[in-house]
């Protein structure tokens, strides 16, 4: 493994010498090699699926590729290549009192390691984001997608061939070896775990290398007394039901008591269309049919068609509930009241705070980043959806004319 | 300790509700309380010095305060208060394809813990930087400065008095308790160790909390064949001799062979004025008197009047030497050759890379930051001198109009 990591470390320096155009061309070449090898990749994926008889149907769906999905992945790569160049950007510049001219310049971080589960699209997305930002990268995917990933890597390697180096490595390693990987700060500058809570916890607790992660996505929608009903219904249903298994989906609605009856009786039949199981506070239970919500419910990221509803007496109560149970991921207010929105946006401490939009927009693609390395709930380095810019560091280059201190 | 940390965590939220002006006034009030209590603080400092008979004279000098130094510290605080406001700044903003308006806003990190050695100025500087950036802070100073620090904290607490909370705590704790502190990620968001290599290593190896640090300052001055002699002499002597104990001082001169004789014979008498002990390569030894430099020498941060000199055949050899031995802290080229400077600035991977200026400028004060939390050789979050901006995180606030995904 050390040999592979060292080769990536060296290749990263070569990659960083390429021009922006050359790096973009490399990403386009990977996309076209993937398209060329479509049949081979789909066959590998079919073999992975055949081996995965014990997976849930949701997991199988995540794992499964077809021509349309493959085209989608390639379009994503091309979109990453088409993003504006981040490396070398002068982020700031000024002349200090001494006369030296200080430029803060974006540079690559170095080598990124991503550890993820069965989604095969992650392999190429992270590889492309790393190439775009001139970082080396080391990938450890889930064993369920092993053959698919190896087929992807074959296409990727052939795209690197004309360059004489390869700054992306796929590690076909065991969990014990992952533990070893987490200690290799000599070769790796940042670790990104992408997957369930267990994976993220395992990585954070064992890593000697900085970890970019999100712990948990326990998101709320606060329906203020000044809500507009149609907007509130659209956003609430979108946030809960459009894709409940993802981290930016809502788990709890907080409803101002003065609109509780109106909102809850309107949202109830919509939730029932999706067979959402509702856990409500006593006031909710007086308006709609629901199970009784416990502390435990308010503290749970369901990732499923389950929902808590709590009627609150004021925005203060909503803010306090979010401060207590929120995971700092995505929070939204639905209100036509200017000051209520401003207060919510200002006081809620989360990576993305929304006024009158769905929490589902906390996403690299929706932010216009082409793709994302992941969503960060860290407070250091990068927060929220992390695209190529989150994969950069900076250095200061300083132009002097003989200045001394 | 948990009780203290929790009170800081709560107080930080109060601090963050203050306006920029109120936070600046608080810092000014601390400076004036320190000035008012000058006699008391100097008496405490004298008592610390009396207890510190086993310290080296350099360490005693670091510890010692007098009225002039105290005024300097207060002026530093006032300069921090006078810096532009960082909290709430819209760092970026754009409209996404969906129509949502995305604003990236600077916010405090939360609670910062600083662990440092005998320099008493650090206590107030870090407290002021934390207040400026609306962060809570927890300070653990060296036991040698204990009484001085307690006197500072008395002045600081009296400045907080009108507010009814205090977001700065000084921990009077043992090394075992420091170990406990490093595990308290529930209360602390970032740890800054400021001190020698042992302290930094102890903190990095034991912390469950992200650490902002610099490992080592092994800095080089490369004197190119196109150097201008007077600039080269000024910068080289400044970088080595103006304050050799600090991390941005130079440890090694790399001299292009075509100017070796000219530069070395001119720099030699200047170095001798400072009694600098020279370790040279065989080519250096042919030009000036020196001891023989080993691998070990090139790899040592002396922090003292000791210097390595190596004659190199080309800029390539200089770049390779820096890549091998440099610590990524501060590196400089002295050259009138445009392309040589550009290449050096671009290829050297360090927090600050200088053309024709002293490495000593890698400093928060010199950068115009008022003061610094420290100099970072991390590649994530912040690199180089870290001022108030390095103590901020960001969040996205998003204005929608009913958008869903």
From TrEMBL, chains A, B:
Gene3D superfamilies given for it?
A: Aldehyde Dehydrogenase, Chain A, domain 1, Aldehyde Dehydrogenase, Chain A, domain 2
Q: What is its EC number?
A: 1.2.1.41
What pathway or pathways are given for this protein in its record?
Amino-acid biosynthesis; L-proline biosynthesis; L-glutamate 5-semialdehyde from L-glutamate: step 2/2
Which residue range or ranges hold the Aldehyde dehydrogenase domain?
3-276
Which reactions fall under this protein's catalytic activity? L-glutamate 5-semialdehyde + phosphate + NADP(+) = L-glutamyl 5-phosphate + NADPH + H(+)
NADP keyword on record: yes
**Keywords, A to Z?**
Amino-acid biosynthesis, Cytoplasm, NADP, Oxidoreductase, Proline biosynthesis
Location in the cell reads: Cytoplasm
Q: What class of enzyme is it?
A: oxidoreductase
Which Pfam families does the UniProt entry name for this protein? Aldedh (PF00171)
Stored InterPro entries: Ald_DH/histidinol_DH, Ald_DH_C, Ald_DH_N, Aldehyde_DH_dom, G-glutamylP_reductase_CS, Glu-5-SA_DH, GPR_dom
GO function terms (MF aspect) = glutamate-5-semialdehyde dehydrogenase activity
Query: PANTHER family, alphabetically?
Result: DELTA-1-PYRROLINE-5-CARBOXYLATE SYNTHASE, GLUTAMATE SEMIALDEHYDE DEHYDROGENASE
> Belongs to which family?
Belongs to the gamma-glutamyl phosphate reductase family.
Sorted alphabetically, which HAMAP family does this protein's record hold? ProA (MF_00412)
**Task of the protein:** Catalyzes the NADPH-dependent reduction of L-glutamate 5-phosphate into L-glutamate 5-semialdehyde and phosphate. The product spontaneously undergoes cyclization to form 1-pyrroline-5-carboxylate.
Q: What is this protein called?
A: Gamma-glutamyl phosphate reductase
Q: Which organism is it from?
A: Campylobacter magnus
Q: Which gene encodes it?
A: proA
